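Hi support team,

I submitted a single chain yesterday and got back a structure, but I'm not sure I'm reading the token output correctly. Could someone confirm the output below corresponds to the sequence I sent? I've pasted both exactly as they appear in my results page.

Thanks,
R.
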Amino acid sequence: MTKTIITFVMSLLVGCAGGIGGTLIILHHESQIAQPVVRARSFELIDESGRAVSRWGIDQHHNPLIAFMPGDAPSSGSLANDLSLDNGDTQRLAIGLTGDANPFLTFRGDDKKPRVQLWVSEFGQPVFSLYDENSCRVTLGVRRSDTPSLNDRDWGLDFNPDRASIGMETVQQQGHSYVKGYLSVRQDKIPFP
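Hi R., thanks for writing in. Yes, this is the structure output for that exact sequence:
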């Protein structure tokens, strides 16, 4: 009788071990199969040290955003070590959509200030801006009026602060729309910041 009980218990233990082992093998094999769709609220790419170098997610204004920072960014005097979707200062490169669902692209320098921005307005009009450490120096694209609208049709290349411009503007004459070119260069000197 004792021998029967021992045989029964051993059979149970071996069967249980086989079931667990088989399940682990199957789960390990299934985890290596690529899933057709991965869904999440955010994704984080980390470097070898475990530090976030890219985040994909939703920012504080509920806009989709992909942000990057260099993995070797210094811990002081440059970009912060904590990459955040809610803090533009930590983003070396940001790609996303504005609240109006219009695309934008921003590159930042080591000083956390924008250097290049490309965006599309709520009216589908593109603007490309280049910055130095002080302010915007060059803008190319639609020149927005004081009351931006779909009717803004003037295009230009502007050098700031208001030193030179070249472009085209629309004019209305006798119920017709016309386009004319312009070129403006200012020779007077102003202090450079």
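A quick pointer for reading it: The first helix runs from residue 2 to 31. Let us know if anything else looks off.

Best,
Support desk
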